[in-house]
Amino acid sequence: MNTLKKIILSLLIASSIAAISTTAIAETDAGRATYKPAEAIDIVATRIQAAIDAISKGVSNEEAASLIKPAIDFSKEINANDKVDNARAKANKKLKSAMSHAKESALKEAEQELRDAKKDFEALKSLI
C-alpha cells in the first residue's frame, strides 16, 4: 500500500509538471507572425530606406520620426545568436540616434544615421 501511494504521488507530480511546463508546449502564438532572421533584416532595411526616401523628399520632423519608429520596433524581431544580437543592438542605437535627430529637426544628420544603420543591418546577414 505504501509503495502504491509513492507511485501515485510520483505520477501526479510528473503529470502536473508536464502540464504546467511552458517549454513542453512552447510554440508561436496564432496571432503573431514570426520571421527568419534574413527576412527580418530585409524588412528593417526596407523600412529604413522608406524613411531615407521620405526625408530626401522633405517631410516634417514628426513624419520622419514616425517612419523611423517602425524600423526600431521591427528590429527586435531579428534574433539568431548572441553575435547577431550584439551587432543588432549597435545598429539599433544608430536608429534611435536618427530618431532623436529627426525630433530635433536635424534631418540631414538623421538621414546620415539612417544610411549608417541600414549598412549595419545589411551587414548582419553575414553573421547569420
Question: How many distinct folded domains?
Answer: 1
The percent range for helix content is: over 70%
The CATH C-level class name:
Mainly Alpha
Largest sheet: none
Name of the CATH architecture: Up-down Bundle
* Principal-axes shape call: elongated
Quickly give the structural class.
mainly alpha
What's the SSE pattern?
A: HHHHH
CATH topology: Four Helix Bundle (Hemerythrin (Met), subunit A)
Low-confidence stretches: none
**Mean pLDDT over the full residue set:** 86
Roughly how many Å apart are the termini? 58 Å
Number of strands: 0
How would the blueprint of this fold be written?
Elements: H1 2-20, H2 37-57, H3 61-74, H4 82-103, H5 107-123
Helix pairs in contact: 2-3, 2-5, 3-4, 4-5
Question: What would you say this structure looks like, in words?
Answer:
- The protein has 128 residues and is mostly helical.
- It has a single domain (35-127), classed as Four Helix Bundle (Hemerythrin (Met), subunit A) (Up-down Bundle), CATH 1.20.120.
- Helix content is 73%, strand content 0%.
- Helix 2 (37-57) runs antiparallel to helix 3 (61-74) and helix 3 (61-74) runs antiparallel to helix 4 (82-103).
- The N and C termini lie far apart (58 Å).
- 25% of the residues are buried.
